[in-house]
Fold these 4 entries.
Entry 1:
Amino acid sequence: MVETITKLSELTKIIRNDLNNNFLFREFDIPQYAFRSDIVPHSGKVADSNIFDLYRLMARTDRISTHDCVHHSLIPNKGLVTTALNNFFMDLCKDVVASQTIDSSIDPNFTYAVNCKVFPVEFVIRRHLTGSGWKDFKSKVDGAQEWSSELNCFTKGYGINITPDMFEDELIQTGGRLTSLLFTPTTKAESGHDLPIPYDVAAELVGGESILDNLVNICFGLFRKSEDFLAERGLLLVDTKFELGVDRYDFKNMDSSINNFSATDDSKKFYTIENKLVRVVDEMITADSSRIWKADDYEEYRGGRVDNIPSAFDKQFIRDYVEKIGRAGKPVKFPDELVIDAAVLYASAYELMTGKHFVELRALANTKENQSINDRIVDNLIKVSEKYDFKFRDY
């Protein structure tokens, strides 16, 4: 039986203390008088970036969103855990594809990255069929596929011919394991929901079918490498989404410090488009981007010994709470106990997925007395400003 390294009671104690002491990270803000004038701030739902030229200064916060809405409450250490998981799996898969990461050691909430041109497609890869993938299979059966010519996407279903012979088991049920990986592309919406699209529309968005074939194969490689590792931990990678981007310039003309990926100078081993390197970007194999089950729980469900599919290490119970109180799509301030439960889930996911101690990760995030997490990040950036030519002014 796979278990956390740290007792849940100890994790709860640490997190409750952080919540009580307001050890929370709401936003990443570099004082403009302290930095170069050409920086462009960008705020996402749960991550903030400061962009200049070829580079991106990224920080993952403790914000949480559901139903395309960012909530009032912060989840202690969520940004810390998400950053650590992302760094872990990008490093694990460094031989599959280059990553956007230049340096992940500056601060535990922070990544110095290449500012890639991101493909406008979400690469959703499924090993098991559940969630919207299962709904799509059911919509095929029920005849509920709906195509929108105006939106150029499916408003119901993915338009994929999912048939019973694609499942490993004769009994077809939600959560069923597929005989091979399934790619279900969606749009990459700036706001609102990502919407399912067919393969040919996804191909058009990325520049052609041969390019999409290569990008999907990269994502399959990332998935297989990650699922093999998690299987050794007694976990199943059910489904996940990847984002890919491409360098803005020919890699031969890029700053050599950017191409220290995979501890190799051999850029030819990775996929390029017109001499521009393709990279995995944003985040990968985190509790926000992936659905992960305990293998033992799945076998209990698969064998009919329990009725419900396993609980994943994700924020589904937060979504359920928001829907229950009738606030879907509206910001919510959660009860403290719900916040603590969510934070314990993220911390537990880190330990179960990596085999590393959350307590050691949390120790890296300590700040000076009365110092905010944002100020800690800025201080750490100043320490490497000369190395990376960040051009800090007097601060």
Note: DSSP finds eleven helices and 18 strands in the chain.
Entry 2:
Amino acid sequence: MKATRFYKMGSALLTMALATAGCSEEEKATSTTTTTTDSSGGSDSGSSDTAATGGDAAAADTATSADTSTTDTAAPDTAAAAKNLVEVAMGNPDFSTLVAAVKAAGLVDTLQTPGPFTVFAPTNAAFAKVPKADLDKLLADKAKLTAVLTYHALMGAVMAKDVKAGVIQTVAGAPAKLSSKDGKWYINNALITATDVQASNGVIHVIDTVLMPPGNVVEVAVGNPDFSTLVAAVTAANLVTTLSGAGPFTIFAPNNAAFAKIPKADLDKLLADKPALQALLTYHVVSGAVYASAVKAGKVKTVNGAEVEIAVDANGGVTVGGAKVIATDVLGSNGVIHVLDTVISPPAK
């Protein structure tokens, strides 16, 4: 599979192309500038890649091949595919649940427009993995259903050969990650089982699992038991509202093992000292969503106001303030989390 660039939609394009689509603070973080290049990168909330070189959320690239050259997205060959995306799906009995969901969300007309669109289409078996009560509830909630379905769609028709690993921006406005492992390709945790089902207004790639849009970075952390100490610290520092805001944020997040390196008496003292705790936690936050492939060596300004040193070794390993980055691109709706093995402390003032 070769590489092609996805261009991010502006709000005007979203309004025109997806007229029916919808989705689903006590303090604001100081705006800062990060050092990035103009390529891209990304992961599901459990996966890890080591950070190294170039890109951001505004120009996310899509995924499938070892070839990393980029070209403009091309429309499909309409002569070869006379039926639109909805008609193609309706003609395949294995997409009957997906078709029912698209109808329930009121997205039929949208997906019959010229587009073009790339749709990652869950099969009936994929929908069958969702507990029936949850699926029935989802189908009855039009706003949430629209958010879920548009999370499976991208602007532009991208064939399998034109994709590359990295973070992409979906029509829902939330990021997703394309990655490969052992010769197989995934979007988040869903295996891509078939590709290049062509339509007159786009292309369908078939997946084995229904994708769910990520929550914000706080919700993602709350949902991961390995961040329980971090969540307790964020709550004690009264930063939940801030980090649940629009952002976007890049969080260098120490896991529980990182906090366990701090003597218990010192950690208890820190958790009880709100100003000191806020200073420490905001030193782990950078303004803007900086994915792994956009990270490069140098100093970046944190929300704390102090700079932190990022180093990249010859093998692509990354340290932040001396702490090793052990997992990258844990996606949130308002930013991205990179996991650290050590808590970093801001310089003394």
Note: The two ends are 51 Å apart (CA to CA).
Entry 3:
Amino acid sequence: MLSMMTSEAAIAPIGAALLLALIPLVLIGWNLVLLRRLPRRGSAMRVSVLIPARNEAHNIGAAIESVLESSHGDLELLVADDGSTDETAAIVRGYAGRDRRVRLLQPERHDPTLWGKPQVLAEIAELAGGDCLLFMDADVRLQPDAVGRIAAALERSGAAMLSGVPRQQLGGLGEKLVVPLIPFILLGFLPLAGMRRSRDARFGVACGQLLAVRRDAYAATGGHRRIADRIHDGMALARSFRQTGRTTDIADFSDLADCRMYRSTREVIAGFAKNAHEGLGSPRGIAPWTLLLIGGQCAWLALLPLAGSGPLPAAALGLAAAATYAARLLVDLRFRQLTRGTLLHPVGVLMLVMIQWYALARRLTGHPIAWKARVAHEEPTSPAPADPTPRKPGEALRLRSRTRRDGSSRQRRLLAR
């Protein structure tokens, strides 16, 4: 049927596909010019690196070593064991016994109706002594100069928060299809110039894998405690900062850190689905995002039969295809993630959109998505406090912290008053 359409009739759908393909291409081209590369020289700021870890025995040792190999002299490393059932705590305890910069923190209890990561981050942040707090996932590996350069970039940016997407290490085909779309969507649909001119919370974006904040701003906004009911903690924290009048920014972290997010297609689906209802797969957002992504990145394939209706439709389809791949190539070359997933870009986009619809269907039918043996609640069951004033250290908080100083063990308890 499509091949029987006249040239005039074919122009409308092809023109729409071309327009939707050009939008991210133009934005990516301009955003890559504006995307900050970090300064080569480090900062003198004291930095606290904070890592939440739940069942990360396979990751946590390499993450700790990458921090301890830092060329930045004034740092401490706080690792929160979030109820792990593997050897995570024992591994961290071993490093704490050998290096006084490392501390193991073990929250004894937390609200089971809330997501664990923001809660443990809020608790260990209250014990951090740095002027810069660098939140890092356990699957991230830092380059030796990363801590100092990120702190320096935070200072120079003038923002209260700075985040970036590490270079993604990709294994199986499922990872190569979907994971590289993180920077593609970020740069293809967010105008960086507008974000930097505005404090509107809608411009609040961040990558929770690796982000730095100014300690004073974090305390003033309520930090992770204010977003304890959110799964997508990076995005939620950026929006929380902007809601309280702070600015946030993003930079290019691809030469400073690496991350292997997932290790199978099953993990890719579960990981992207757990965040969906706070992002692309929200009830309000899923329809327009489907239109933008499928219409701009995949529709030209479905419209290929119209190429025979005339030279103009054929040329427009060729331009749409070229725009699609040009945008993806620009991102993949900048972030050094050129793989088979680049060639199969429309397939990856389709897979991503299908994951969003899958997550929404699970949510609407009352089948919550589990991650690391915890369930993502469909609606916040305990809303975050409206008052951004942070709690004082030790208030309603009970932690056990183990550290080694001068060759001896020290146990410290902070008891709720």
Note: The CA atoms of residues 70 and 144 lie 4 Å apart.
Entry 4:
Amino acid sequence: MKKLITILVLFFIFFAGHSQNHRNCGTMASLKSLQDNDPLLKKKMARIEQDTKKWIKNHGHEKQKSVIIIPVVVHVVYNTSSQNISDAQIQSQIDVLNEDYRRLNSDASNTPSLFDTVAADVEIEFCFAHQAPNGGWTNGVTRTHTSKSSFDLGQNDAKYTSTGGHDAWDRDKYFNIWVVPAIKEGSMGGILGYSQFPGGPAATDGVVIAYHYFGTMGTAQSPFNKGRTLTHEAGHWFSLYHIWGDDGNACWGSDDVEDTPNQASENYGCPSFPHPSCSNTSDMFMNYMDYTDDVCMNMFSEGQKQRMHAAINTSRSALLTSGMCNIVSIDKSSAESVVKIYPNPSKGNITFDFGDINTKGKTTVRVYNSIGQLVFEEMYQDIASLKSIELPNAVNGIYMIHIDSEHFNIVKKLEIHR
């Protein structure tokens, strides 16, 4: 009897540990919860689906006039200091989004020839928002300490300040992304992320990702440390369904995309090609909307591109003119009036003149480029009233300089002309 119990315990431990290595997306569970709470949501989404198909029929094969730019705000909600992920880790995630949605990912060459002809440059890019809802400048990141160690997708508590999370910014102007300690559905944990399809409530619109699966460095954990969890969940936000159609292995479900093969169910890990099901030549298991490991994902299809463009031109069209990626002027405080930066424009060498402002203690200088990428960061103890720095790798353009200390917080605009 003791031997049997030991075997069962070992089996449970193995199974629990093994199951955590499988991708677990909470989007469909979140959708069901939203529909249970709003009986009209199904009809609303049916109308959106009609608009999507109509747009694809009329415009799906037209060449895109320009790349679509989506303004992003990342809400970091943390319980411990390790969960308060760095700007660099956040940047690594946005870099992955831009690479994956432009088919500039380094593993694009891994797409099998069977699918290479339909692999798409989606022509969507993401930038950090530079304008906050109050009109001031932002680097596109908010940080909120919470007493919670996990958030429930059914309650959407990560998306409300009143429940320990952070309120969404206007969904017509921003793509909201929350990074949280952990995600659960009731008593079940281990969810990597979840998204909200077009049509859901404005207050909860966006994507939630657990901090272990965000970006490519820092706290990101294998096999989900290549940033593909957000690539997948953003696909849902753009109206993409799972590639197998969520039919429970029945072969009748559909993702409403013509050029993705009919597929029995989700794939995990890294299958060998070909990997057939439902009488196809092979599942498109390397598609971002399957459940394979990050390292095995490398493509969206042309049909998925059409569906995403339909979403951004219909149900999410307000984002096309939000302008939140544009640099805005900053209201100057008295400290900002005193502090000088010269030369400006600069060739990359600049000097800060703090005048008679108190600079005792720690002062951090951060420099961001026009798309919100951190290009310089340094912390100084008792910084001198005159301090020079070099930006040797900065190319021509507009930069925002953040100077933060216990005495003042200053934002300055810098132009570099080499």
Note: The domain at 334-416 is CATH 2.60.40.3080 (Immunoglobulin-like).
